[in-house]
Amino acid sequence: MNKPFPYTIDNKRYHTWNYHLHRKFGCKVFKVALNAGFTCPNIDGARGTGGCTYCLGGSGDFAGDPADSILAQFEEIKTMMHKKWADAKYIPYFQAHTNTYAPADVLRERFEPVLPLDGVVGISIATRADCLADDALEYLSELNRRTYLIVELGLQTIFDSTGEKINRCHSYAEFLEGYGKLKERGINVCVHLIDGLPGETKEMMLESAAAVAKLKPHCVKLHLLHVLKGTKIAEQYLNGEFDVLTLGEYADIIVSQLELFPPETVIQRVTGDGGRNTLIAPKWSLKKFVVMNEIDKLMVKRDTYQGAKYKE
Predict the structure, then answer these.
(1) For FRET with 124, which of 95, 99, 142, 225 sits at 20 to 30 Å CA-CA?
(2) Closest by alpha carbon to 62, among 237, 277, 213?
């Protein structure tokens, strides 16, 4: 019996990150999340203050302690992850805040120490599309020639009206400009989208996915909005200003989005991790495998797969 989707080793109907890494490196590879001590232009006042309204700790909840050196963080997180995957290689993931928001010599100082470590097969750098200065782009191009590089861009939505609500402090046009600079240099890009942002309808979320699909990114991450303690968006939620998605609604949206992406686009995530001690809502998201199973079951029920509705 033929598999319903070609890019799979586990009968998934979408192009999983695990499948991509196994094919590329021949083994299990996991990310080691690091905090290099950067800030963001919507935190330090360059473009705004307070950060994105949903953000707690620079979206690096599971990254290392910035008080420790990068090498110490790497060793600690790697050792912890090895309890789950004993025989694996690594991609250092500079996750917290905006990791190209500094001169290139600072970036080099932060990134270079992990590259020669045993088992390291690449590097992933999370940033904003409006924080790609010429010297940073030159250094990223150099990295791209030396190793497997992914630059992760937090778009979240194509709608600037929503961007203003969440204090993103850059426009969709600026995202497209930054994305284009990376693509013209042959750099792999992973685009982040968040489903369930205040005021957004299913149609809007699908429109964001369709727009990103047309860009043919190397990877995408599809996240659920987590309402976390201590964030601005938590105040809005507790004041009744918006509702979070149900599990059924989220699975429906994710499956509909997956249908829009080219089969070749790697899907790094179809859900996210909210800290058990910080998550206010939705509580069902704590059961990550239940969420993933609901998505899988719905794809089978609909007899659909990634790219089923993709149009060039």
Answers:
(1) 225
(2) 277
